[in-house]
Structure formats: structure tokens, C-alpha cells
Amino acid sequence: MAADTAGTRDGAGRGTAGARVPRIARSPLVWWRRQSLRFRLTATASAALAVALAVAAYLLVGVLGRALMASTESIAYQRAREVVALADDERLPDPIAVTDGTIVQVVDARGRITHVTAGADRLVPLADPRAPSGDRGRMVDGGPFGIPGPLLVVVLRADEGRTVITARPFKDVADSLTTTVHMLALATPVLLVLLGAATWLIVGRTLRPIAALRRGAAEISGTARARRLPVPEARDEVHELATTLNDMLARLEAAEASQRALVSDAAHELRSPLASIRLQLEVALGHPDGQDWPETAEGVLEDTLRLSRLAEGLLTLARLDERRRPARWEPVELADLVRAMAARYDDAVVTVGRAEQAVVRGDALDLGRVLVNLLDNAVRHAGARVRLDLRASREHAVITVTDDGPGIPEQDRERVFHRFTRLDGARSRDDGGAGLGLAIVRETVRAHGGAVHLEDASPGLRAVVRLPLSPSPE
């Protein structure tokens, strides 16, 4: 290794010999993106204002110069026309009387200057008498004639071969343009600074509600009961943003409360079968000689099945909460599905009434689980018969499951769709449910874009599922 090479770099970007390692130049775009929004808005507005002011100044000077040029040219042409008229009438005085500073020379056919204004040159014409005649002027240098600055010269023809040359000094016009340029060069930066400062203040006041939102968000903790952001009074986009964020926080709080309730209810439901299993095993192990082991195994198996059903229901709800739509999205013929699900039960208990043709889009397995949960619930509480019907309207398929059992009071028909909700008549262990069946039904039907509710069947209870029909291909 050569002696003059730098040592290996350490974490601070310096060589082992202490030499500073030059940093790689950052991209201007990266630097720009790292600046504050207030700075970027102010800089962008200032740059746009600078361009606008520069263009406006350029146009002002150009328009002003052309206007002064046209005005000077018009005066020179007008004076030339007046002198031509006097010359044609043979009333041309010498010297020619002009009060506005216009210089006039009249040249005869032989090229001699015969008439001039006071103080004008009588020997050398200001322009070539043979130059084209017209109202358009041309610029000449006034130095050779003892006149400072340029001259705007107009040439016109008169009778008897005479030529009228008029000239107006252009120095005053040039000085006016120069003064205007100097004033714009001084005033434009000052105006730009003032506008930039005003933009900085206005943007700062505009972004103040966003800073309040940021501070409010920083103050929100995970354990806060009421988590809300300050809403500005102005009915602008920031107000809508704050309102939307508060709605989102409200939904998050509701979801968090639902998750906590689910965990609490799940722990409570798990406690009972686990305690039963533990008690049966402790009694069996404490008195092994007098224990009926097959009976103990049956009891443990029953509680294990309860745990398995509870775990399956919780996993189903978790999947529904996660994806919010069916795992598969395909056409499902409900009439075939209704007959297939009814065939799993005794014909003397479950009968299929009307089963019209109806095609919906979704997951056949999920929809089959909906029918099984409703039929299980109806068979469990029916007196003798359960009727399953499918009707199709113009836009919806309607599935009804009707039993002739005791029914549910009207005030409890919505509550039974909540998770782990069981009414007084269904709380016994022999019922076998964990209060998740109807909750799974509602979440699955919602994922398919439908709705479900309970109504009185007089006698009994009727569960009504409404699903949108699949649009028919054209």
C-alpha cells in the first residue's frame, strides 16, 4: 500500500490518518424534497413571481420603447408633411419655423440645401436625399452634425425634385428608457422580497392548522380514552382532513373496543371448558380406582369439541375481519346450494319449499356455512319443523329459514348477532353453542354485499338473508 493513500474510513467518514473524506454531493432534488413545505411553497411562489416580474418588466420596456419610437416617428412625419405642403405652395420661409425641436432640411434637385430650421446644418444633409421616401423613419448618428445621441430621420419628396428631411433627437427617448430600466432593476428585487415575505407569512398562517394537527397527533397515546385532533374553524381542506382523521380515530377506537371485547369474551368462553377438563382429570387422577374412565374420556372429549368449535368460529371471524370480502369470487347457484345443505338434515325436520333459480357471486363454501349455521340454530330451537325457501326478485335473492319454535323477543333480535351473545334459554351447556354462529352469518353475508335480519314467524322465528344477484352477461 502506498504511503500517501488515505487510511481506512471510520464510522464518521474520516480516514484513520485523520484526513477528512469529501462527502459526495447530494442531488439538488433530494435537498429540495428535504426542505419544509413552507419553504418549498414560498420558494416556488417567489420563483414564479420573479419570472412574472421579469417578463412584465421586459414587456413594459419593449412596449414603452415601441410607443416612444412610434410617437417620435409620427411627429417627424407630420412635420415633414407640413413642410412639403409649404414647399409645394411656394410659401416656405427661411429659416423654417418649428417650435417642438424638430430639425428640417429642404434639398433641391441639385442636392443643395435651400431651407433649414434655425441652427440646422446648411452644408451636409442629415440623410441621403436619394433615400426612399415614406413615413418610416431611420436612425442616424447625430455626432457628425454636432447633435448628441441618435436621430430619427424621415424623408419625403416635394414638387420640382425637392426633398424634405426631418429629424428628431432620440436621446431623450433613450434616456427615458434607460431610467425606466434602472427603476425596474431596483424596484423589482424589492417588490420580490416583499412578496416573498408576504407569501412566507400567508403560507405560515395557512399551515398553522396542520401544525396543530401534528401536535394533536403527537399528544395522542395508545392508552388515551378520547383521541381526537383539533378541527379548525375554517371550512377548507384542512377542516375536511381533520374531520376525516377524527372519523378514522373513531373507527379505530370502535375496532379496538371490539377487539378487547372479543378477547375478553373469548377468554371467558375458554375458561369454562378448560376448567371442566381440569376438574374431570383431577378427580380421575385423585381416585383412579373408582373412576369410570370411559365416562371421563367422554366428558373431556365433549369439552374438547366445544373448544374446537370455539376456535374454529374465532378463526372464521378473524378471516372475515381481515379480508372483508369472500376468498373466492365466482358465480354460485343458490338453488343447488340450498338443496345440498338441506339434504344434510332429516327430511322430517327440514323441508325445502320454494327454490327458485338465483345466481350470486361469492364463495360457495362461505354461503354454505351461512345456511348450515341458520339451519343448526333453527333445528336446535324448532318444535317440529324447519322450512327453507329461496325466492328471486329483480335484483336480490332472498333466503328464509323458518322454524316453529318459541322465537326471540323483538328487542333481542338484533343483539343475537353480536359475538358471544346467548339468550337465557340458550345458555345451558347442552346447547353446545358459543354465541358465534349468527355473528359469522352476518359478517359473511355483509362480505357478499347482502344483509340478514330476524322476524316473527307466528309462531316461531324466521331468518331472512338478502343477497344481490349476479348481473347476467349481455
Write up this protein.
By secondary structure, this protein is an alpha+beta fold. The chain has 3 domains: 193 residues, no CATH class; 96 residues, Orthogonal Bundle (Helix Hairpins); 134 residues, 2-Layer Sandwich (Heat Shock Protein 90). It is 48% helix and 15% strand. It is built from 8 helices and 12 strands. The protein has a 5-stranded antiparallel sheet. A hairpin with an 8-residue loop joins strand 3 and strand 4.
Q: Within the largest sheet, what's the order of strands? A: 2-1-5-4-3
Q: Kindly provide the radius of gyration, computed on alpha-carbon positions and rounded to a whole number of angstroms.
A: 49 Å
Query: Helicity range of the residues?
Result: 40-55%
What is the count of DSSP helices, taking H or I runs of 4+ residues? 8
Work out the number of β strands: 12
Inertia-based shape? rod-shaped
How far do the termini sit from each other? 79 Å
What is the beta-strand fraction?
Answer: 5-15%
Number of domains: 3
Mean pLDDT: 82
What would you say about this model in short?
Strand 3 (138-141) and strand 4 (150-157) form a beta hairpin. This protein is α+β, with helices and mostly antiparallel strands.
